[in-house]
Design goal:
The protein is elongated and about 90 Å long. The strands form 5 sheets. A 7-stranded antiparallel sheet has the order 9-8-12-11-10-14-13, covered by helices on one side. Strands 4-3-7 form a 3-stranded antiparallel sheet. The protein contains 9 helices and 17 strands. The longest helix has 28 residues. By secondary structure, it is of the alpha+beta class. Helix 4 packs across helix 5. About 2% of the residues have low confidence.
Amino acid sequence: MEFLTVNHSSFLIAMSCVVALVAGFTGLSLTRDLSEKPMFQKKAAIALAAIALGGGIWAMHFVAMLGLKLPILFYYDAAITLVSALSAILLVGAALILLHFAQRTPLIISLAGAIVGIGILVMHYIGMAGLELCRAVYTTSGVVFSSVVAIGLCVLAFWIAYGKRTKRNIVLGTICFAAAVCSVHFLAISQTNFVQEPNVAEFGPAMSNETLALGVIFFSFVIFGACLWVSVTYLVAPGSEAKRPEPQPAPQLNAELQIPCEADGHKIFVRAKDVMFVRADGHYTQIYTENERLFCVWPITVAFKRLLPLGFLQTHRSYMVNPARVSRFERTKDKGRCLFDRGDLPPAPVSRSKLKMVQDVLASHGGAIGA
């Protein structure tokens, strides 16, 4: 088997690394602060980030491949080239869905990084399979080494970028992501040989380097434009940002409102200000006071309608708390909980979408120690 002589364009190698950096920065920046955004905007941001990251992996690979110089004329299979791009976008999208719709534990972050690393590998080898009139011959050491480095660097990139969502960590995560993408290509190519293949397996129409260059340049312009768009948020000075309205103190509860409850077969009425929190229980609710847990015939929707105007806080789709009776607010990365005066009462959970609102209100309320 006679191997072909291989050379590379230094300029296109450098440009491929720049594309990987820009794509990583764009994708990781698009997913900032998603917990505070509406669901539709959150889904749209994840989809755009998947296209930026996955498409950036694809663009980096083929910018570098445009710099590949062989002593023969060769083409690319257009259908296989498109499949390689879609595979990268879909696998990156699966990783982002895990990160933003599942509880972000160390296992989830590591799994997401590993999925992205696998996506880079899948894209590379599917893209290489699209070569026509020549064929890539791999070595075991090159495949194994590039795979380990890619997955390891992607896990590290996501640990840095998602361990703590700061601008500095996003930049560091971008560098690790770009290093992972570039290492797969160049470590694998350095151990890859090429042989002439006279027979063409026609899976899709043939595509020349010139046609591929037009597609790669167009997509690279899209990524660079998106990068400029997200970069604006890093350049705005903190003092020039629109000020958020100051949280208003919780209104005083109406002491005369009586909540109908049942206990031991008797109907009783509880004052709203004596309620610690309310929890949904099927089509009814449970009312927690200092000493009792009472059954209430109100469904949770009616409880929200009656009690939210009086100053109660909805912390979860199934919970509502009396802020005057909250003694402590505890927050972790993506969730929180409200603790009460009585230590034997269970805490009320705070969902991710309610964290900012609950924290602001309790911080302005005198009884919320540690909010």
